């Protein structure tokens, strides 16, 4: 894909090969392991995000699937994953509302906590997600996203 970045077949292959859950995502991009992708993982996640503009129906669900299990924001690949969800949601708000609306309440709250967290405490764009869910009529998801901002911090996942 580096030689032919605009080839749709290669782009789809990249998206398909991208992890679709937190465990695989962290195993692949975890800087603590000093694996080959640890240093360039941010670039891979940025490429994944860029592909979300044309393949949002594949990228946004995958990013949400990973994000719903992330405990909080952190620098590097996790930050880029969060940005991917925000950027793709900004471009396709109804898709975000549809996906989140179908999730279990516990998954909604977990995703909301991840998206609420950010550098310095909270993500300044979080209110936009609330507006999207409200406008889409996703009352239960909106309520879960509101609840997530008032819940006490959860213990860190020790598998990180």
Q: How would you describe this protein?
A:
It is built from 9 helices and 2 strands. The protein has a two-stranded antiparallel ribbon. Helix 7 crosses helix 9. It is globular. The two termini are 30 Å apart. The C terminus is likely disordered.
Which key phrases capture this entry?
160 residues; two-stranded antiparallel ribbon; single chain; mainly alpha; 9 helices; disordered C terminus
Brief account:
The chain is mainly α and 160 residues long. It has helices at residues 8-17, 22-29, 41-51, 56-67, 77-91, 93-101, 105-116, 126-135, 139-148, and strands at residues 117-118, 121-122.
Topology readout:
Elements: H1 8-17, H2 22-29, H3 41-51, H4 56-67, H5 77-91, H6 93-101, H7 105-116, E1 117-118, E2 121-122, H8 126-135, H9 139-148
Antiparallel strand pairs: 1-2
Radius of gyration: 15 Å
How would you spell out the order of helices and strands?
A: HHHHHHHEEHH
Strand content: under 5%
**First CA to last CA: what distance?**
30 Å
Q: Quick check: average pLDDT? A: 89
Strand order of the largest sheet: 1-2
Overall outline: globular
For this structure, the quaternary state is single chain
Helix content: 55-70%
The chain-level structural class is: mainly alpha
Number of helices: 9
Poorly predicted runs are 155-160
């Amino acid at each position: 894909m580096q030689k032919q970045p605009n080839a749709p077949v290669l782009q789809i292959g990249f998206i398909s090969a991208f992890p679709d859950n937190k465990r695989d995502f962290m195993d692949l991009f975890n800087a603590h392991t000093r694996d080959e992708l640890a240093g360039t993982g941010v670039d891979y996640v940025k490429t994944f995000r860029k592909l979300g503009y044309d393949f949002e129906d594949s990228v946004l669900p995958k990013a949400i699937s990973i994000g719903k299990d992330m405990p909080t924001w952190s620098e590097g690949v996790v930050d880029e994953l969060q940005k991917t969800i925000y950027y793709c949601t900004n471009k396709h708000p109804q898709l975000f509302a549809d996906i989140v609306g179908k999730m279990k309440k516990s998954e909604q709250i977990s995703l909301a906590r991840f998206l609420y967290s950010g550098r310095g405490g909270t993500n300044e764009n979080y209110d936009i997600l609330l507006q999207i869910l409200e406008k889409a009529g996703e009352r239960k998801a909106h309520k879960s996203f509101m609840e997530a901002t008032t819940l006490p911090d959860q213990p860190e996942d020790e598998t990180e």
